[in-house]
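Running this now, will post back.
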Amino acid sequence: MQRSQRIMGLTGGGSDGWDVFLKARRMLAQGVAVTELTIGEHDIRTAAPILQNMHENALAGHTGYAAVPGTDGLRDTVAARVQARTGVPTTRDNVMITPGGQAALFAAHMATCDAGDRALYIDPYYATYPGTLRGAGAIPQAIHTHAEDAFQPRVDDIRAQAPGARSLLVNTPNNPTGVVYSDATLAGIADVCHDHDLWLISDEVYDTQIWEGRHLSPRALPGMADRTLVVGSMSKSHAMTGSRCGWIVGPEAVVGDLITLATHTTYGVPGFIQDASEFALQQGPAFETEIAAPFQRRRALAQTVLAAQNTVGLVPAQGAMYLMLDIRATGMTGEAFANDLLDTHHIAVMPGESFGASAAGHVRVAMTVEDNAFEHALRQLCAHADLRA
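Update: finished.
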């Protein structure tokens, strides 16, 4: 039987970027001790009070079909949080709850792009972006950034590709680079969106992990609330990756369309998970700072380690839970270096090429193991790079 071209074409005919990660997981399954610095999975688990709240609400019976847009309580809480952080008036009618940020990204492009529309995104990018756009029927088009700019997008490069496009996807703080887009960059992006009538889809799942500068949601810029869809998630801010609870914030009419889409696809998020998410958000900024603290601490460790050598370069780590390391001095591709490091030292990192052509010759390191193990792995990585240089 013939499968659909859509499903067979999600990766564009090439690798989906997860090869080294899957190789490391196979080694782990075979009993090999591997230090995993690949995916954005906290080394702490979801906090016990959140799990207790989830348990209590499940036992209380909130296990049936949940309201498709999300519970009123969670939508109100997300709206209040967004309004407090951005100053943009936001109500529950601007919010739809989704099964995680990934589902939100897909839904946002389904709402803004027709089949065959060009959908722009910034390279380097989170590995699922191109496949998500293809799955929504759009034609993904990368806008390349440059290592010499610390991967900060050039507005003129975006403007050059904007004519005729339907949407632009941005992610700040950025995965994989750790770069926080400047106010000037975001203002330029907003201008391009106005000038070329683009929808802006803003992936802000790392908005609580800021080490330098500030997070500016482009929805807060003049005239942008009516053309911006913001993707958020409990995964990174509250160490709730497996709970699969996220949201889209946008114009009321679009949220209505998204509710119709969810009715025909995901049919909402389990009620007891939404209740626990509402409880978690109500713990306030201090709790979010506590969840983010290990990554800020490990960033400082990494800066000390990397300052003591000259082979591996560090892209300015301004936010998020990752480091982007420049290993071009070794003469190796990011993919070759990552495989070599895994085979030799059983340390798993992600090749820069998994995140697009702009990150070639780099590797991404997730700061997701305890401090001593993280520092030891980073020192081994640098020593390995010295030998290969």
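The chain has two domains: 5-45+286-388, 64-283. More later if anyone needs it.
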